[in-house]
């Protein structure tokens, strides 16, 4: 795979970093990939070869490319990290992802000078909101790790699957809701757009290996703005498993200029929800839905919504948020999903005793039945 024509353009109100991707070992058409942000948020944004190396790495591995060549200078610190990341992925895939050669046109990489600013990946979900809340509780405003920017990415879940469309109106609605939260936290929300996921939009690749690398690619696009990026954890320590974002993997996508930290994986999902519930602005405006329906921030019907509503019920909190239109979960809501796939059981098992304490034996019994079904 060759990554060429790396450039920054300013047009139609956006700053766009783009690159041309040429497949060398697969008969696939060339593609232009991009990362872009509105001009009013483009301070410190650039066409960084590091971004495209990280963003294209997983498709190159998955599609069987024998090397990845970047036509530009790449940070040697990042090259070392990518080498480690490929060995982690090779172990996770039992050798299916074999480490490949990483080459760059120049070794004359210069470390960007930035103001020592901290940012975070902001989705509007419980993981990112808990991370922001803890940052506010644990860091004084004068500390360099005090988060000043939250980066919200289109092309991740919203607009990520090409067949489902760009859904820009859904993204804009989410920006409005999340801005209420970031303004309350004295943080700047930075909308970012990318099509890196479209290089190879296979669901298993995305979930098991790829999505953390796309977040890292976005990070490197802002290497003149931030030198530390926080990524909220997806799973806690007892339930870690091969995943696109992982505490072993994410930090290896750091360069010398930008450190990436996978954080809060000592906390369970329920502990994060409790943290967010004590921050009213966030608790009334969070976004967990992956259905991205046109008329609601959270549809209340998809598995992620139903699971979150069940968690809130188990904690006695569902009726206290306006983020869902419904304030009741039924056994039928849960029964429509297979809660045993994709490492979902660790989210559901802890709810059983809590639901019984809330007098919701009907929900607890439903979860027990569904979990036992897979074990019988």
Tell me what you see in this structure:
The structure is a single chain. The protein is an alpha/beta fold and 376 residues long. It has three domains: 2-106, no CATH class; 118-263, Rossmann fold; 288-375, no CATH class. The protein has helices at residues 49-62, 76-92, 126-138, 168-184, 203-221, 269-277, 280-285, 303-314, 331-335, 345-348, 351-357, 361-375; strands at residues 2-11, 14-22, 31-38, 67-73, 101-106, 118-121, 147-154, 188-194, 228-232, 259-263. A ten-stranded mixed beta sheet has the order 5-4-1-2-3-8-7-6-9-10, sandwiched between helices. A hairpin with an 8-residue loop joins β2 and β3 (31-38). The radius of gyration is 21 Å and the shape is globular. The N and C termini lie far apart (46 Å). The model has no long low-confidence stretch (mean pLDDT 95).
Which descriptors would you attach to this protein?
single chain; 376 residues; alpha/beta; Rossmann fold; 3 domains; ten-stranded mixed sheet
In terms of topology, how is this protein built?
Layout: E1 2-11, E2 14-22, E3 31-38, H1 49-62, E4 67-73, H2 76-92, E5 101-106, E6 118-121, H3 126-138, E7 147-154, H4 168-184, E8 188-194, H5 203-221, E9 228-232, E10 259-263, H6 269-277, H7 280-285, H8 303-314, H9 331-335, H10 345-348, H11 351-357, H12 361-375
Parallel strand pairs: 1-4, 4-5, 6-7, 6-9, 7-8, 9-10
Antiparallel strand pairs: 1-2, 2-3, 3-8
């Amino acid at each position: 795979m060759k990554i060429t024509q790396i450039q920054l353009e300013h047009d139609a109100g956006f700053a766009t970093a783009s690159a041309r991707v040429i497949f060398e070992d697969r008969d696939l058409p060339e593609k232009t990939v991009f990362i872009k942000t509105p001009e009013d948020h483009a301070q410190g944004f650039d066409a960084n070869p590091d971004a495209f190396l990280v963003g294209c790495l997983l498709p190159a591995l998955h599609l069987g490319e024998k090397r990845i060549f970047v036509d530009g200078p790449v940070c040697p610190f990042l090259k070392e990290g990518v080498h480690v990341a490929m060995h982690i992925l090779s172990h996770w895939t039992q050798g299916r992802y074999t480490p490949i050669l990483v080459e760059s046109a120049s070794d004359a990489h210069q470390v960007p000078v930035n103001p020592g600013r901290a940012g975070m990946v902001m989705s509007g979900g419980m993981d990112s909101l808990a991370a922001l809340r803890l940052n506010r509780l644990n860091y004084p405003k004068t500390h360099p790790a005090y988060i000043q920017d939250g980066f919200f990415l289109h092309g991740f879940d919203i607009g990520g699957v090409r067949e489902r469309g760009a859904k820009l109106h859904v993204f804009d609605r989410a920006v409005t809701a999340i801005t209420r939260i970031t303004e309350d936290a004295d943080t700047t929300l930075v909308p970012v757009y990318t099509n890196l996921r479209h290089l190879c939009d296979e669901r298993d690749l995305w979930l098991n290996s790829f999505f953390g690398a796309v977040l890292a690619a976005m990070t490197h696009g802002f290497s003149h703005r931030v030198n530390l990026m926080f990524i909220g954890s997806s799973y806690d320590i007892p339930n870690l498993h091969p995943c696109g974002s992982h505490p072993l993997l994410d930090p290896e996508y750091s360069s010398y200029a930008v450190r990436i930290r996978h954080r809060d994986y000592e906390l369970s999902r329920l502990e994060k929800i409790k943290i967010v519930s004590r921050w009213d602005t966030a608790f009334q405006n969070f976004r967990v839905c992956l259905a991205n329906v046109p008329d609601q921030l959270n549809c209340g019907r998809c598995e992620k919504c139903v699971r979150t509503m069940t968690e809130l019920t188990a904690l006695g909190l569902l009726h206290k948020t306006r983020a869902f239109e419904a304030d009741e979960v039924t056994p039928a809501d849960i029964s429509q999903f297979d809660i045993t796939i994709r490492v979902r059981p660790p989210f559901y098992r802890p709810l059983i005793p809590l639901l019984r304490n809330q007098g919701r034996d009907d929900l607890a019994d439903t979860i027990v039945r569904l979990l036992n079904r897979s074990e019988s």
